[in-house]
Design goal:
Length: 250
């Protein structure tokens, strides 16, 4: 937090966008992020992780880099997955706070101000939750089933683990030591942060229909990969932890 006399609450912030075939939306996301960051701090950077895009995302980013001095671009020559892209962005971040959301414009970076407003003395990080999910009925149903399943399985406290609109101190992300390469990184992130004893505030945010491209999650390979990592996370974050606790108390 910051005591800026101009009312800007954060000392500094890194805004991170994983981008995979988001050429139609990433420019507007970067422009909106610059405006959003200026509302909450005087010290910020924008990081876009181009995760092996095969559309015109690289050309758009090359144009943007000349217009926004705050923009940094990380390029993966091959696609590493959602978690791999986020981890690259987190590792590159240099500011005190990290805000991230997706590059597909289903969330509005200008709502970052709502996350910042939720920070209090007893709050360590802020998690958005979707007011209403604007996706196909299949994605909505699968998303609800997944959320309730992992919330019970992993004992999560937040209401929407699948909402990729978060504000977290960089030191907490470093402490969490994230390992996932797939979309399971969201679950790993929330579970580890909660297990470390940190407290999330929760803020309602808008979720918009996808205007460009298609979801990369609903492919057999990505679903299989996420389920593999989900099983691994359950073993490492629940079973092993329970076993260690029993040994300690026994």
């Amino acid at each position: 937090m910051s005591d800026d006399p101009n009312g800007k609450k954060l000392s500094s912030i890194s805004a991170i966008f994983p981008a995979y075939n988001d050429g139609g939306t990433i420019a507007s996301m970067v422009a909106a992020a610059v405006i959003a960051c200026r509302q909450v701090t005087d010290d910020f950077e924008i990081i876009v992780v181009n995760d092996g895009s095969r559309d015109y995302t690289p050309r758009v980013l090359a144009e943007l880099i000349g217009r926004f001095p705050e923009l940094r671009i990380i390029t993966h020559e091959v696609n590493r997955g959602y978690g791999g892209a986020l981890r690259s962005g987190f590792a590159a971040a240099q500011k005190d706070w990290v805000f991230y959301t997706d590059g597909d414009a289903q969330y509005n970076p200008l709502e970052l101000a709502h996350l910042v407003e939720a920070l209090r003395a007893n709050v360590d990080a802020v998690n958005g939750y979707k007011i209403s999910r604007n996706d196909s009925i299949i994605r909505i149903v699968v998303g609800r089933v997944y959320h309730h399943f992992v919330k019970i399985l992993f004992g999560l406290r937040i209401r929407d683990v699948d909402c990729d609109f978060r504000l977290i101190p960089r030191r907490i992300l470093a402490e969490a030591d994230l390992q996932s390469d797939s979309g399971a990184i969201c679950l790993e992130m929330v579970k580890k942060i909660e297990d470390l004893g940190y407290v999330f505030a929760e803020v309602p945010v808008n979720h918009y229909p996808r205007q460009y491209g298609i979801s990369q999650f609903f492919t057999p390979m990505r679903i299989f990969r996420s389920l593999q990592q989900l099983a691994g996370l359950y073993h490492s974050l629940v079973i092993k932890k329970t076993h260690l606790q029993k040994k300690t108390t026994g």
